Amino acid sequence: MFESKLPNLGTSIFSQMTTLANQYEAINLSQGFPEFDAPELLKKQLNHYVLEGMNQYSPSSGVPRLQQQIAELAQRKYGAEINADQQVTVTSGATEALFVAIQAIVRRGDEVIIFDPAYDSYQPAIELAGGKSVNIALHAPDYVIDWQAVASAVNKNTRAIIINTPHNPSGKTLKQQDINALKAIVSAHDLYVISDEVYEHITFDGQPHLSVLRDNALFAKSFVISSFGKTFHSTGWKMGYCIAPASLAVEFRKIHQYVTFSSFTPAQHALADMLEQQGEHVDELSEFYQQKRDVLSNALKGSRFTILPSEGTYFLLLDYSDVSELNDVEFCQWLVEQASVAAIPLSVFYQQPSHDKVIRLCFAKSDETLLQAAEILCQL
């Protein structure tokens, strides 16, 4: 009999809800992808490089010009001095980068601390490396990390901590006191950090993104991972990158070369052009998505939902306690079938299901779509 390496995993909730949304012709605010297209320059340059014949393998670590643009972006945004050739690796999406970083450092019997609600790729990657995830639950409405609980969870088997800021699905961002507490624990126990920063350019209300790249001591033990898909509205391209100290980048690249070897070559050249010629796009993302957040949250103010704070990402959480007694999975199924709006239940992001009555909406949509969804939700 075939023995699965991941016996407890089935079809992801994102695929399930999108299938339901299509079946019921619902407004899909579930899966986290933009409704609008990638920038015109990016599409134009992709076509240009395809026609120019840039269609063979790139260097495994990435097209040098793109590596350099990434290093310059890190310097401009965070003051980080990055060696593009030695420390920047272009990957086939952030999920590949997360997988490779985990495989690079986690050994059989190691433990990795993650925070629930957590992005669903972390735990399977840890288990495939022979490790074990230690899940620390965060709860509505504030989703604040109890760093004393983190310190208490560390033992001789602890290898790493995975952080995600801005955080999917809660929309929370780490503050300076969080970074200080993380650094103290990492230093005291000689741990590694995998910092998932795919929404790094989407923070709201004037709050800066506190990248691990801002702190030299913390970065020395870290893999910092980001996503061009989130930054340039091109999730289907599956383009991301990892910045790490040279010694860790060497180990990262050993595994990366046998996962994808290299990533989509013409897209790398197009992304380099985009960063070089329209770098202001990155700086405008926060304002762009804050407007989307405010359109949706303002339109929902007359509803029976409680709107939880969104400090970053393109997600908004709603507490539906005053709307239904159903659990969140049942409520999301009812919502798509009866109200024609698709959302994501928060409990699926937990190892031990949370009893918070909270759902996640994606507001990376047109204002028309957001207002249409809000009108329906306000009638519940």
Automatic annotation (TrEMBL):
<keyword id="KW-0808">Transferase</keyword>
<protein>
    <submittedName>
        <fullName>Aminotransferase</fullName>
    </submittedName>
</protein>
<dbReference type="GO" id="GO:0016212">
    <property type="term" value="F:kynurenine-oxoglutarate transaminase activity"/>
</dbReference>
<keyword id="KW-0663">Pyridoxal phosphate</keyword>
<comment type="similarity">
    <text>Belongs to the class-I pyridoxal-phosphate-dependent aminotransferase family.</text>
</comment>
<dbReference type="InterPro" id="IPR015421">
    <property type="entry name" value="PyrdxlP-dep_Trfase_major"/>
</dbReference>
<dbReference type="InterPro" id="IPR051326">
    <property type="entry name" value="Kynurenine-oxoglutarate_AT"/>
</dbReference>
<keyword id="KW-0032">Aminotransferase</keyword>
<dbReference type="GO" id="GO:0030170">
    <property type="term" value="F:pyridoxal phosphate binding"/>
</dbReference>
<dbReference type="GO" id="GO:0005737">
    <property type="term" value="C:cytoplasm"/>
</dbReference>
<dbReference type="Pfam" id="PF00155">
    <property type="entry name" value="Aminotran_1_2"/>
</dbReference>
<dbReference type="InterPro" id="IPR015424">
    <property type="entry name" value="PyrdxlP-dep_Trfase"/>
</dbReference>
<dbReference type="InterPro" id="IPR015422">
    <property type="entry name" value="PyrdxlP-dep_Trfase_small"/>
</dbReference>
<dbReference type="InterPro" id="IPR004839">
    <property type="entry name" value="Aminotransferase_I/II_large"/>
</dbReference>
<feature type="domain" description="Aminotransferase class I/classII large">
    <location>
        <begin position="26"/>
        <end position="375"/>
    </location>
</feature>
